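Quick one: structure tokens for this chain, please?
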Amino acid sequence: MDHRQAAKDILAEIGEHNIVAAAHCATRLRLVVKDESKIDQQALDANPAVKGTFRVNGQYQIIIGPGDVDKVYAELIKLTGLKEATTDDLKAVAANGKKANPLMALVKVLSDIFVPLIPALVAGGLLMAVNNVLTSPGLFSAKSLVDMYPGISGIAGMINTFASAPFAFLPILLGFSAARRFGGNAFLGATMGMIMVMPSLVNGYDVANALATGKMTYWNIFGWNIARLVIRVRCCRC
């Protein structure tokens, strides 16, 4: 890709003086524009450097692709003379220019918290799939690969541990991400997540059994009995 030419073409299609601010993420140019009606959408759709476009939260986003978007962005900054901005800077500019829909604002908050966790969850899910291939009977024969070749049982156990970790300790990841999103101390957020997965607390899946057997434990706080209980995230193979 000729990154400078791609930037020139995109600038011409957006409008030379139509861009208020610009940033980029891993795959997209993120723009705040003055007037979206001035954008030549047909030309953008035909541009071979552009993989797609969409509008969200006051931003006009152009999909370029990993490995190219940062170079096109650098050329666009040179051509326009705009100041380089982060995605957070761009969100502030977009928010000042347009009052957010309350529902979209809620969706944005949730996405800001959960989207950073996606790589960890995807990695755990892929490792879980590998573990299922090794331990599920009926895939290659009546027995599982672990039963057929006991020597790989250690590998299967290690993979299962790695796969389970992001889900078993998801509250820690959520606490860290949520605290960072709301401007708090991310390490305190992670600490709250750690409290939620302390092994000394009764697992939410075991509450019925603990109550039935009288093994539920309590803290006595000023005469109030508070169950030592937490609802913990558990994957299907934990």
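The radius of gyration is 25 Å.
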